Amino acid sequence: MKPFLFALGAALVLSACATTTSPTGRTQYVGAVPQAQLNQLGAQAFAEMKAKQKVSNDSRQTAYVSCVVNAIVRQLPPDAQRIGWESAVFVDDNPNAFALPGGKVGVYTGIFGVARDQDQLAAVIAHEIGHVTSRHHDERITRQAGASGALQVVGSLLGSRYGEGVGNAAVQGGGIAAQAGFLLPGSRAQESEADVVGQQLMASAGFDPRAAVNLWQNMIAAGGSRPPQWLSTHPDPQSRIGELQSRAARLVPTYEQARASGRVPKCG
């Protein structure tokens, strides 16, 4: 009964949103928040982060990251290039990076320990930019809105039939089920898709797509314990490396053509 009602609730909420096709052919539910508002939220979050977290004053790091970001952004469609891309380097040992709607890219200083040259850094940044251009933030917010709305529908339906206590329990328990069975699988799909888009972007910008493999090998070497794959927002590392290797081989001609056309980044 509960799975049926959850599916019904999700269908009711998501029916109010738009559908589109992702870069890899997935059907996406988007539109819970207008794109202009998403861009504004991304810019606001980035400004708040810069105000609260220490920003690197190392001009070489800042120029290095900016050079890689700009090279990748030049490969985006014109409308995506015009949103005002901006980058910042945050002093944090976490080997990570992010990109937000509105063209905001953040890199933590810890990433330089695993991204050991410009090609490996490009693999990280292109992946994060791939999330933005693939509308993953829009999709995630829409999914979360759908899950939240669906749980309220389930709670109301069960509560009206079995009592308020049962309805509240369904909402609370359903939140765990939604996170594990509805939201996280979408996130893993997004991570894999960002790998595809990012590797294509970096090759088109003149960065060696094979460096994405080296990056993730470094990540594994530096990483600690991982949660089970079914509770992770990232694909299994070894599976990911295999896919990156296979895709890199197909993208080498794109990379070589970019270099022959004069796209030869010299970032660091």
Describe the protein's architecture and organization.
- The chain has about 270 residues and is mainly α.
- The protein is built from 9 helices and 5 strands, in the order αββαααβββααααα.
- A hairpin with a 5-residue loop joins β1 (about 20) and β2 (about 25-30).
- α1 packs across α6 and α7 (about 165-205) packs parallel to α9 (about 235-260).
- The radius of gyration is 20 Å and the shape is globular.
- It starts with a helix and ends in an 8-residue tail after the last helix.
- The relative contact order is 0.14.
Q: Label the overall shape.
A: globular
Structural class: mainly alpha
Number of helices: 9
Return residue spans where pLDDT drops below 50 for at least 5 consecutive residues. 1-16, 147-186, 227-231
Spatial arrangement of strands, main beta sheet: 3-5-4
Percent helix: 55-70%
Ends apart, CA distance between termini: 58 Å
How many domains, in number, for the residues? 1
The count of strands amounts to 5
What's the main sheet like? 3 strands, mixed
Helix-strand pattern: HEEHHHEEEHHHHH
Average pLDDT, all residues = 79
Strand proportion, as a percent range, falls in: 5-15%
**Rg measurement, Å:** 20 Å
Keywords: Hydrolase, Metal-binding, Metalloprotease, Protease, Signal, Zinc
Cofactor: Zn(2+)
Pfam family, one: Peptidase_M48
Protein name: M48 family metallopeptidase
